[in-house]
Write the structure tokens for this entry.
Amino acid sequence: MLKPWTPFEWIVALRFLREGRLQTLFILSGVAIGVGVIVFMSAVLAGMQSNFIRRVLSAQAHIQLLPPQDVSRPLRQAASAPGTVVVDAIVQAPRQRVKSIDQWQAVAAQIRAMPQVLVVSPAAAGSALVTRGSASRSVSLAGILPAQYYRIVNLEDKLLRGHARLAATDILVGAELASDLGVSVGDKLHLATANGAAATLTIIGIFDLGNRGANERSTFVALHTAQSLLGLPGGVTSLDVTVRDVYAAETIAQRITATTGVDAQSWIKTSAQFFTAISAQTTANTAIRFFVGLSVAFGIASVLVVAVVQKSREIGILRAMGISQGQILRVFLLQGGLLGFGGSLAGCGIGALALILWQRYARNADGTPLFPLVFDPKLFLSALLLATLTGLIAAFAPALRAARLNPVEAIRG
Amino acid sequence: MAEFPAPAGTNKMAVGTGPVVQLSGVRKAYHTGTAIETEVLHGIDLSLQPGEFCAVMGPSGSGKSTLLNLVGLLDRPTAGSLRLFDTETTGLDDHALTRLRGHHIGFVFQYHHLITAFSVLENVMMPMLGAAGFPDAAMQQRASALIASVGLSQWQNQPAGKLSGGQQQRVAIARALAMNPALVLADEPTGNLDTKSADDVFALLQDVNREHGTTVLFVTHNPTLAARCPRTIHVIDGRVIEE
Ligand SMILES: Nc1ncnc2c1ncn2[C@@H]1O[C@H](COP(=O)(O)OP(=O)(O)OP(=O)(O)O)[C@@H](O)[C@H]1O
Ligand SMILES: [Mg+2]
């Protein structure tokens, strides 16, 4: 029985689709598979990207301000006399010494006043040698203000043992360094720097930054401790900044450089390689989407072309009954839209199922998921919308053909 | 004798004032191939008064279906004037022709009568549904009553394709009457039915004509049935000859 308030076009379109059982089923499956692949691929890609970004940004600032680098320059100026060719200008990098950011307090205040900026954290960093008994390791020493730095890199979350409340004679070390040196929380470490300063510090915590190299090299101490060890009284070697919109980091970095004159580097610039890879993946994904969309469109169009031929007598009879060209057009457009929508609905189901299975079975060696997947409703909605639109567009040519059928010829067959 | 349900609403066209159909000098040529034109109808003059029941006879290929399709606004004449219900139709666009056809003309064809994707009831509702855009209870009641009047009530919820040829043709008549048309065009409705079914279908058309004053143009090859019609015209080689 016909449900009230179902428009004529819907009634006829649905009934025609239902009557073309196998045809409808096959094209729905085709659309579903295409959409399923797109949904799955897009979700995995998005998961990978956001996972990478989260990992990168939980271990580093969005923007880092560094003192100006001494530029390498030729020791001997190239002779300008004509005919003299300098074959081998000797180029030498300047001696690496720890430099402080000029007026860092003022610069920090200036940046902190910018509305997009969340946290500004000063750090004094350099290299040092730690010794424990006969073992020694070269490490990078970072002096921080915990209250600010932990808002950028939350070391407290990354602690395996101990605590992270740094006092003047305390040090935090990475898990690999601790096991290399055979030390644990409460043990003492001897630190020496290139400018002759040395101190004995107590390990109060052992952290895991999620990266073997970082765990071997990184150590954290209070800012004052680092300043005196590195010979930088009152100075800092970098300002770490976080901003509200991580993707605006590069623009903000440029603005900071422009207003303060200090070189500011955003995570976007330092992760350029990652972004190149991402954009290559995105391009590939877009191309795949486009071609899947195209084959979905051709599939729907070809099914409808056949349907118009099969149904031409019915179309003729409907026209004889006073059904308008517009109504016939809409009946077939609707069929295209419904095939796109129905197929993509099933495709979303397939994609979601594939994601769940993938999350269950594709795992790291230790059994943890590769990365958490987010079921973004926007992805599913846009898949539904685009597939429906594709169906409508694909149906246009066959629908127009149906509408323009000469009823007399259609009825004669 | 069938009792046809009373028309829903008033009859839209002023019946009884002038001729329902008035053709003068109507020609129809078909383009076959690239440039060759074959004229099928060579200047037809024909007029049908309200309530007339007119049989159309003539040899195969003489142009009877062509004539009916022109009168039913399914096709356009190449030349001449075609007035329906006092409206000149030759200048109207497809939309206007479709409206006129849907509201005032009922078709019954020889083959391919019903839409198999729908039930008997839905087939009869279809012209009303197309005109209104949405189904409603009144439409369903009228379709039900029309099906009852052709004696097929127990079949109304069956798929249309399940019925015999004669039954399908009776449903087609019920459907042609759905919009309470002033004119019914029947192109060999009894053409491939057995004698009994043909008689039933013919009797139905007579009932429609008698009860509602509906004008009927009825193409047939059957001289017995034609003899029972008050008026018969012959289409021979694209010309109309009155009996
Ligand atoms: N669309 C068309 N294109 C070309 N020729 C056509 C077309 N329709 C009909 N004809 C030709 O016009 C002539 C008349 O056809 P029509 O169908 O009107 O005859 P008819 O009298 O109904 O015949 P029948 O009794 O077999 O139904 C025939 O020669 C037919 O081949
Ligand atoms: Mg014919």
About this structure: Helices of chain B lie at 64-71, 94-104, 120-132, 137-149, 165-176, 195-212, 223-227.
